[in-house]
Specification:
Layout (H helix, E strand, L loop, with lengths): L7 E5 L9 H12 L4 E4 L10 H8 L7 E7 L5 H14 L5 E5 L4 H7 L7 H20 L6 E4 L4 E3 L9 E2 L4 E2 L14 E5 L3 H10 L2 E4 L4 H17 L8 E9 L23 E3 L2 H13 L5 E6 L2 H18 L12 H5 L7 H11 L1
Length: about 350
């Protein structure tokens, strides 16, 4: 029997709209106490409240280890600006940034910008995949040692180690190079919700972490295998992909008899599957599904953020740690290290090296 893969856990820290980042910061720190891999913060152009990227930048100096993954919409935005903002978050968090790629599909949101009408899902996710590709190329456009910072000569960068990306997408083009040095992780972690077909295709091509939704471990395992096969078909190493089951969790009835397993519930979290029960029951589900190879871990969206996240950390996670199924400390400092993902080499650095040896 093959060894069980490390368990990965993440949580959403959104909820009702708030204009004070302090509540989100407090939840991120709570999740860090439970050594969760990362926290996400949902966002959209239709949602009131501060920008998720800005909130995570506020959370960065208030946390030390946990990954910070805001939702970033690739529709109606410029890939160059998005890549710069995500790279900046990686710098201010010292290598703990990711971005949850999403699209804007409604006509109401399109009218906020007035640039173009709403587009079909397939076109939006093609653009989102291209934005992810362009972002990765921009992050690579500075070689790791491009910065000189030589005060005596007044040289800040080695211009020979900056590269044009010259990316041509279906709706945009980007010349580059980036205006932000290569991030600490090389490339911040890309997260995509692979619930729909078009999104799943983009995830197989570009994501480091994919969220899936399933009501049985068999369904989850099937979706995971499909994603890994698709990633391999795109020339990727499937070992570089982490697949997490996304669950909306309601732990309000911790003292009552829980509803067993999962059931189809109201759309309390967008496109969600719904678990209702206590922290121990959630730990049992996670143990059973992960131990059976259904997924690499879970992304949990609490119905009541403060109440349920406390019960996840102090109940579910504590039990998993007691059973030696989940870590009790962070093994490294970056989000990629939490996830067991290698820091990617810059593509242009490899080109330069190969030219130098020819």
């Amino acid at each position: 029997m093959s060894a069980i893969r490390p368990l990965h856990l993440a949580a959403e820290i959104g909820g009702p709209p708030r204009y004070d980042a302090g509540s989100h910061v407090a939840l991120a720190r709570l999740a860090e106490e439970g050594t969760l891999d990362f926290v996400t913060l949902s966002d959209s152009f239709a949602r009131p409240g501060p920008d998720a990227l800005a909130v995570m930048a506020r959370a960065a100096p208030a946390t030390a280890r946990i990954g910070l993954v805001p939702t970033v919409t690739t529709t109606h935005t410029e890939p160059f600006h998005v890549s710069s903002a995500v790279a900046t978050l990686d710098w201010v968090s010292k290598g703990r940034a990711g971005w949850h790629v999403d699209v804007s599909a409604t006509e109401a949101e399109a009218r906020l910008f007035g640039r173009r009408p709403a587009a079909p899902a397939a076109a939006l996710w093609q653009e989102a995949g291209e934005a992810a590709d362009a972002g990765a190329r921009l992050w690579d456009s500075w070689e790791d040692d491009a910065e000189i910072r030589d005060v005596a000569t007044g040289r800040f960068i080695d211009r020979d180690k900056l590269h044009y990306v010259d990316f041509e997408g279906s709706t945009f083009s980007v010349r580059g190079p980036a205006i932000v040095p290569r991030p600490p992780q090389g490339r911040p972690v890309t997260v995509i919700d692979g619930t729909t077909g078009p999104a799943r295709e983009a995830a197989a091509q570009h994501a480091d972490v994919v969220h899936i939704r399933a009501t049985t471990p068999e369904q989850a395992a099937s979706l995971r295998d499909e994603l890994l096969r698709s990633a391999a078909a795109h020339g990727r190493d499937p070992a570089g992909l982490r697949v997490l089951v996304a669950l909306t969790v309601d732990l309000g009835d911790a003292e009552a008899a829980p509803e067993p397993g999962l059931r189809s519930g109201p759309q309390l979290a967008r496109r969600g599957t719904y678990f209702r029960g206590g922290p121990v029951d959630l730990a049992e589900l996670i143990t059973r599904w992960h131990g059976g190879g259904a997924a690499d871990g879970f992304h949990l969206t609490p119905i009541a953020p403060r109440r349920d996240l406390e019960r996840i950390v102090n109940g579910t996670v504590a039990l998993l740690q007691h059973r030696s199924l989940f870590r009790t400390f962070y093994p490294g400092g970056t989000l990629r290290e939490h996830l067991g993902l290698a820091r990617p080499a810059g593509r242009y650095t490899r080109v330069s090296s190969s030219e130098g040896t020819s």
